[in-house]
Amino acid sequence: MDKDLSIIPALRRKALVYELEEKQKEELLANELLYITNDILQTCKYIIYYGTIEYTELINGEEKKKYYHLDGITYIGQINSKKQRHGMGITYFSSLHAKNNNCDYERYTGEYSNDNKNGIGELEYRDHTLYIGEWKKNKKDGSGIIFRHNKYSYDGCLKNDELHGYGILDIYKKAKYECNWYNSKPHGFCKKTKPNGEIEYSRWKNGIKNYHFSIMSHINDEILNPMYMS
Q1: pLDDT-above-90 percentage for the chain
Q2: Are 111 and 98 spatial neighbours (Cβ–Cβ below 8 Å)?
Q3: 155: which DSSP letter?
Q4: Assign residue 9 a region: left if phi > 0, alpha if psi is -120 to 50, beta otherwise?
Q5: Which helix (H) or strand (E) holds 56?
Q6: CB crowding 34-47: b at 16 or more within 10 Å, else e
Q7: CA-to-CA distance for 191 and 179, rounded, in angstroms?
């Protein structure tokens, strides 16, 4: 590629906004400045670089990896007229950004509105915890799934980053809770299923259990409906 047409030197100097041509997309992939599949890249019209860029430089006849730091965030995707993230895109968060901003994000893939996560999106944390679901103004809000390996999973409703509404919380090797939630606390009727098949129905208010009763079943866990019991 003609040196004058390359966008890599500019990317290493400062954060800029580009409307990418196909040859520029190919150059970014070829130089491993993006760790992203070509299919996803084809859907992105704009790219904004804020963050850490890794590249190879020839020093005294030896190739060495070097890093260019901006504020530790790299974004590729669509933007609005104000050059904000808007539409579909992917944001990568460096370890430097995580340290300086007290956050453990690694990558977000999904929708933005005026620089906020808004709509449907997938957030991966540095410990590989994963959230897939709805967002509203940078908060988990709506239906979603949270998965933390060997810890727990949650499938249900959220509001303002809290478990809120009906959802199923499955704690690894301990118990599964099917109930309504209020600010991440059980609220209302709750069904708890233990690994041995024992089922406990209980009633909660703001995270405090009022009463419970248990049944044993390995076949049918819908024998009793607590909504109709005194």
Answers
A1: 33
A2: no
A3: E
A4: alpha
A5: strand 53-59
A6: bebeeeebeebebb
A7: 6
pTM of the entire structure? Answer: 0.71
CA dist 62 → 8, 56, 57 (Å)? 20, 10, 8
Among 27, 67, 34, smallest CA distance to 48 is for: 34
Q: Which of 156-160, 163-167, 205-209 has the lowest mean pLDDT?
A: 205-209
Ramachandran area for residue 26 (φ above 0: left; ψ -120 to 50: alpha; else beta): alpha
Distance (Å, whole) CA 177 – CA 166: 10
Among all chains, which residue has been given the structure tokens 């990558």? 107
* Rounded mean pLDDT, 202-228: 57
CA distances from 198 to 134, 175, 213, 217, 220 (A): 33, 10, 11, 6, 11
Is the pLDDT assigned to residue 158 strictly greater than 90?
yes
Percent of the chain with pLDDT over 70: 63
Pairing of strands 53-59, 46-49: unpaired
Burial 153-184 (b: 16+ CB within 10 A, else e): bbbbbbbeebbbeebebbeeeeebbbbbbbeb
